[in-house]
Amino acid sequence: MSFKNITVAGSGVLGSQIAFQTAFHGYNVSVYDINDAALEKAKERLTILKDTYANYFKDEEKAAAALERFTFSSSLKEAVKDADLVIEAIPELEEIKINFYKELATFAPGKTVFASNSSTMVPSQFAKYTGRPEKFLALHFANEVWKNNTAEVMGHPGTDKQYEEQVIEFAKSIGMIPLHILKEQPGYILNSLLVPFLNAGQVLLAKGVADPETIDKTWMLATGAPLGPFAILDVVGLQTAYNIVATEAKQNPAAQPIADLLKKEYIDKGKMGRATGEGFYKYPNPAFLDPDFLKA
Ligand code: NAD
User: Fold this and answer.
1) Inter-residue contact 42 to 31 (CB < 8 Å)
2) Are β-strands 113-116 and 136-141 bridged in parallel, bridged antiparallel, or unpaired?
3) pLDDT tens readout for residues 35-73
4) Do residues 141 and 10 share a domain?
């Protein structure tokens, strides 16, 4: 394996999971965040993840050992001084990422490969700021990394294939299933499929074509899928769904009725999805899990 020292930049929801997954598989991980308060928060997240991993993998010892493999720094220079790979998981704002890559370019050793975990942006947006476009690509994880173990690996046209291969090998070495994307694509594979699918369900609802349960039932019965679009939207969370559709509505007025409906009927009533106990369905016993849900 060519990478030994891994730095994870940004230790929020995804960064802390990526860091833990990496340490759980034996790597020493340098965790970088903007200040000491953010790093304290990271330590809390990693401690909670230790329990999550211990329970999920039924291996307390391995999870506890992972917790010993972190170093923490709010100095980017210090955090990347010997990095073979930097995985960036900082906020999804272009300006923040551009500034980060400009700074990273000045501090990282020549050998360091940079990988972005951005969900909606593509590597070619940032390649020119990295000082090493050939060593820059995306490595995209899914939330709840320990069980949703996809790793979408995607270069931009200037990425040298040997680094894509190295990142694929690295992803395998931390227990991920690498999915190699051959051509740059906003949303990778997963969100290129999922976002239009979820959107199509919401369009049917906003037009009054059918209610959420009927739409989900149709999809589940006809395809054998375990969940329909509204059950998935409850997992994603209705605030995130609203943010996506409200952004879309700025360019495409046809999306506005969907945004209005989500806000008025769900968000304003505190129905945010599975995390709050109610969204399109009520939890912990949503109707779609009822054995009679798919019966006539
Ligand atoms: P988050 O807000 O939970 O965490 C962001 C972290 O970055 C915070 O710890 C923050 O202190 C830190 N940060 C802020 N500015 C920084 C800077 N200039 N340099 C370094 N760190 C900085 O965000 P998140 O949900 O973990 O998302 C991070 C990235 O991962 C985004 O690009 C997002 O698209 C992607 N992602 C998120 C998910 C998800 O489900 N949350 C899934 C896949 C990918």
Assistant:
1) yes
2) parallel
3) 999 999 999 999 999 999 999 999 999 999 999 999 999
4) yes
Between CA 234 and CA 230 the distance in angstroms is 6
Say yes or no: 165 and 143 in one domain.
yes
Domain boundary among 181, 214, 231: 181
pLDDT digits (tens, 9 = 90+) for 158-179: 999 999 999 999 999 999 999 9
User: What is the residue type of 179?
Assistant: L
Residue 263 Cα to ligand 1 middle (Å): 25
Choose which residue among 86, 90, 154, 239 to substitute to test ligand 1 binding: the one with the highest number of ligand atoms within 8 A of its C-beta: 90
Name residues whose C-beta falls within 8 Å of residue 283's C-beta, 6 or more positions apart in sequence: 234, 274, 277
Q: How far is the CA of 10 from the centre of ligand 1 (A)?
A: 6
| Catalytic annotation, residues | 119, 140, 152, 191
User: Which structural domain, as residue segments, surrounds residue 210?
Assistant: 190-285
Strands (E), 39-131: 70-73, 85-88, 113-116
> Can you give the pLDDT at residue 240?
87
Q: Is the dihedral of CA 154, 160, 164, 167 positive or negative?
A: negative
Smallest CA separation from ligand 1 atom 35, residue: 118
Best residue among 11, 17, 32, 33 to mutate for probing ligand 1's pocket (most ligand atoms within 8 Å of CB) is 33
Q: From ligand 1's centre to the CA of 190, what distance in Å?
A: 19
Compute CA distances 46 → 23, 64, 143, 170, 271, whole Å: 10, 10, 15, 21, 29
C-beta 18 within 6 A of ligand 1:
no
Question: Of 106, 85, 77, 78, whose CA–CA distance to 28 is shortest?
Answer: 85
Ligand 1 proximity of 194 Cβ (cutoff 6 Å): no
Are both 194 and 175 inside the same structural domain? no
